[in-house]
Amino acid sequence: MRTWLVTGASSGIGEAIARELLNRGDSVVGVSRTRSPVTADKFRWYEYDLSSHQSCIELLEAWKGPNWQFNGMVAAGGMNDRQNSQRESVSMLDHFQVNCLGHVRLFEKALPYYFREDTTVLVVSSYLAKAGSAEYPAYSMSKAALELYFRSKSRLDPITYNVLYPGRVATKGNPRRMLSADDPNTFKEPCEVAPVAVWMLDQGLRGMTGQTIDLGR
Ligand SMILES: NC(=O)c1ccc[n+]([C@@H]2O[C@H](COP(=O)([O-])OP(=O)(O)OC[C@H]3O[C@@H](n4cnc5c(N)ncnc54)[C@H](OP(=O)(O)O)[C@@H]3O)[C@@H](O)[C@H]2O)c1
């Protein structure tokens, strides 16, 4: 039986991936700031604020009891502030804290104690991490930085990591809206993306590493 850590498990893509893993009989530990709506015998939820060092310490303290041994992690927690300019350094810091450093700090601290040696990581990233973005520079930089962290980490430790660009998915973070007539992309549902993510996790355990699957813009 496999056990997975899923960040961003309270909604959208992270929640859908957690449900997909549970549906096939795996165990899931979900983390987020607000409680996840997922309920299942094999699901445990913990509060974790990706932007807070203290929150990370408290999460690791709470894990001492169950002493989890994760087969891998899904990094699905994230933010993209569409309301405010992402050119301000304060916005850049916010995006780096949540999208990048929150995962880095947890993984660095938890890897020796709570992950199996041959663990795999799936980064739910964005096409913008590759293309850059005039509108969302802080978002695209912070996602690219997270990908590069895991690429670097996989050179140091015996982990595999892969990256999923989910395309446009209707979630709280990216609500469904009318698209212009010349926009070739449509909104997917989170449950359409989740099976691809689970397949990538399985391939990661089989040794696939450094691969990106791009499901569209
Ligand atoms: N939807 C898309 O079109 C799309 C496209 C490309 C990439 N993505 C990526 O997919 C991932 C999931 O996003 P989504 O679209 O599913 O959006 P969502 O429904 O808003 O989910 C975002 C998740 O991240 C968590 N989160 C946000 N800030 C956090 C913080 N400070 N600490 C801990 N958890 C935090 C949220 O939980 P709490 O608020 O409860 O903390 C929530 O579970 C994101 O990384 C996003 O960049 C999405």
Q: What is this structure's SSE topology?
A:
Blueprint: E1 3-7, H1 12-23, E2 27-32, E3 43-47, H2 53-62, E4 70-75, H3 89-114, E5 115-124, H4 128-131, H5 137-156, E6 160-165, H6 190-205, E7 212-214
The structure holds NADP nicotinamide-adenine-dinucleotide phosphate.
NADP nicotinamide-adenine-dinucleotide phosphate binds at residues 8, 10-14, 32-34, 48-51, 76-80, 98, 124, 126, 166, 168-169, 171-174.
Name some characteristics of this structure.
217 residues; alpha/beta; Rossmann fold; 19% strand; globular; binds NADP nicotinamide-adenine-dinucleotide phosphate
Describe this structure in words.
It is a single chain. With 217 residues, the chain is an alpha/beta fold. The chain has a single domain (3-214), classed as 3-Layer(aba) Sandwich (Rossmann fold), CATH 3.40.50.720. It is built from 6 helices and 7 strands; from the N terminus they run E-H-E-E-H-E-H-E-H-H-E-H-E. The chain has helices spanning 12-23, 53-62, 89-114, 128-131, 137-156, 190-205, and strands spanning 3-7, 27-32, 43-47, 70-75, 115-124, 160-165, 212-214. It has a 7-stranded parallel beta sheet, with helices on both faces. Helix 1 (12-23) crosses helix 6 and helix 3 packs parallel to helix 5. The longest helix is centred in the middle third of the chain and has 26 residues, at 89-114. It starts with a strand and ends with a strand. The mean pLDDT is 97. The site of NADP nicotinamide-adenine-dinucleotide phosphate has 28 residues, from helix 1.
